[in-house]
Specification:
Blueprint lengths: L5 H22 L6 H8 L3 H8 L2 H25 L4 H15 L3 H15 L8 H16 L8 H20 L4 H17 L4
Amino acid sequence: MVRRTRTEMEKTRITLLATARKIFGELGYANTSMDDLTAQANLTRGALYHHFGDKKGLLVAVVAQIDTEMDARLRDISDSTTDAWTGFRNRCRAYLEMAQEPEIQRIVLRDAKSVLGHPSPGEQQHCIESMQKLLAQLMQQGIVVPSNPEALTLLIYGSLTEAAFWIAESGNSKERLTQALAAMEQLLRGIRS
């Protein structure tokens, strides 16, 4: 019996994730067969089952990977300005703009929603926590009207998420993005001191 090292197992996991991300992005989840996926990864179905349980488990892992990258990009955007309000506003704007990126649109906003349902706040906790921290700082600086930072975060984050789904589901996502950005600006004006 051949024993695989931790490094070999991690390499297998990384290969499956990268292959799934590429194929899900190109063909969509529904049009991706496990046989085609494992053949392109040059691995067996057993490897997929071992690491992810099934195709749905693999989708969960791909979405988590993309979400982590999105959050890092958003943190970089909000951290790149010296003006905290501008950083927060740019972060919200960038989140909506990401809804037009083909990979995010197809995998996260279309396929994940139809296969996995709406993401729960627990699944997106890192994004919610970083937004809540920003809003709390803006309240302490007197830039945002004082309120419960957690409640305000959930309202804004929920609004942005639903708008991103709305943008992604459209045949004319550019027009919807323009409309969503205008609505976002109106919403954010309402929370400024």
